[in-house]
Fold this protein.
Amino acid sequence: MSFATQADVGVRLEKTLTAEQQASATQLCAEATAIICDAAGVAEGDVTDSQTLAIFKGLTVSMACRTMASPQGLRSASTQLGAHIRTEAYGSEAMALTARERSLVRGAANGSLTTIRTPVVDDSMYFPELDPYFLGS
């Protein structure tokens, strides 16, 4: 089982996948899930929080789509026809987490994304004379 399915990959790519692409997407989703679980330090079945599952699903689909775009692991490819050059950029390594994605995975696994931190603001921050400690009380 993985965090995403081949259908999720098809939705992201906005196309109907062929049978060969479906098999490839299923395998890539399984590989991406393993990489994400390793980075998070959790087993797949241990992830139950809906927000964490959504983040992991999105990352799984992104990794699968990157790999499908460049199965050879290329960062870019250029084609030249006469004076015209066409270049396709594929981004970072396909089946690997970027530094930002790794940080997101670790934060989600540690639950730091589910906590909303609101700063505590009161009048004593702006008017020290209202602070009882400032007044010596």
DSSP finds five helices and two strands in the chain.
